[in-house]
Amino acid sequence: MTDFDSTFRVWLTAVLTCCAVLYSQTAVSQDAERNDEPKAQFPPASVVLSKVFSIKRSSTESFIGTAMPIRKSIVGSPVGGRVIEVFVEEGQRVGLTQEKSEFDGSILGAPIVQLRTTTLDMEIETARVELKQRELEAEELTATLPIEIEQAQANVAEIQSRLDYSRGIFERFQELFKTSGVSERELQEASATFRSQSELLISSQATLRKLTATRQTRIAQVDTAVENQKAEVRRLLEMHENYTIRAPFDGYVIGKMTELGQWVAPGQAIVEMVQLDPIELVVNVPQSFVQPIQQMLDKALESKTKAPVQVAIDSVDQLFEGELTQIVPQADLRSRAFPVKVRLANPVAGDRHLIKAGMLGRANFFVGDETDVLMVKKDALVLGPQNIVFIADTDPETKKVTARQVPVEIGATLGQWIQIKGLLNGGDRVVVQGNERLIPGQELAVLSEQSDGPVGE
User: Fold this and answer.
1) 8 Å CB contact between 273 and 304
2) In angstroms, how far apart are the furthest CA atoms of the chain?
3) For the chain, how big is the Rg over CA atoms in Å?
4) DSSP strand E in 77-173: where?
5) Model pTM greater than 0.85?
6) Fewest Cβ atoms nearer than 10 Å: which of 90, 254, 302, 325?
7) Using one digit for the tens of pLDDT, what is the confidence trace for 7-27?
8) Reduced to 3 states, what is the DSSP secondary structure of residue 445?
9) What is the spatial distance between Cα 322 and Cα 300, in angstroms, rounded to a whole number?
10) How far apart are CA 66 and CA 357, in angstroms?
11) Which of 457, 448, 446, 450 minimizes the C-alpha distance to 44?
12) Which helix (H) or strand (E) element contains residue 200?
């Protein structure tokens, strides 16, 4: 190694050592500055508190179920025809309109499919023209029939006068013939005239009786013809209404079986629809729990009240209060579980219902003996992957109130209250307003404290 290399190494080592010392001093200085900075503080959160109540209540059992539509229908075509317009797509919500049927007064649903009506429109126009003709004939008969009767009456009176005159002539000629005042030929002519007038009188009287006797019948006949034609027009109009296929209820299209230009036959399926409000949660309950649930339903029916069931739907951060409506008396032969139906309202978010058919949910039933359970107001829950409540703790020395986060398991509901399980006790105070953005340990500014308890407490 040369002298130059040795000198360069010494110089490089000295430079690196100086840089390391300077960096270390700078880092220590910066750490000291950061340690001297004051920590960020959150201002006190304004909240409203409520108590945790311990009450006696039947224990609950949870069962998994599936959300099912309250109504499902395959809408068919009542008539045959060619599709000229399709108004819906799969997944689209189709509701009812403000229109009413002129035939039965029922509320009409929104149009789904329109069939061609060209030929039917011509038949309706022809039927309306025929109806107008029948109405004119009825008006004419109503107006002219009294005149015809008057004419018949006048004709009878005129013939009666001629008959009286010819009778007088015939009788006078008979007297004159005895004295040879008239010839036999003249007497025969007078006799023939008298007989002719007699027969004319009988005929005119018969005509008058016929007009008078059939007056109401003839009017009824033309009125019936008018009503028959009106019925024909109504039949064609109702058929015309059937060419517009409408939604039978407020629901969603889940299947479309026709397209523009297709020819459909009477009874052919057009769309499949489901109604989701209200919606049913169908849970399979083991046979050991069927009897307690049946007693719960019988008690509600006897008291004419609802049998409440608390429902939680997976993927929907919201609790629902349903109503036990039916226990199907036929078990699945493999699982020996009975379908139990819980009906609940399906709220709308935007223009869609929150609960979709096929979603999984959990229903809580009161089926056990009475035990001590903790109840809090539903507003105390902060729903999420893990449901929590915030307890308001008071420091005995500083009197400061701070928030403590407690994970809880939820159970059945009781009006605005819900059963919970967790590390809390009856009498604890929980935050029911202002808990959406609380941070554990944050100081609380208590605006008020609610004192009401669950129903019956």
Assistant:
1) no
2) 200
3) 49
4) 81-86, 93-94, 96-100, 107-109, 111-115
5) no
6) 302
7) 555 455 555 555 544 454 444
8) strand
9) 13
10) 8
11) 446
12) helix 184-213
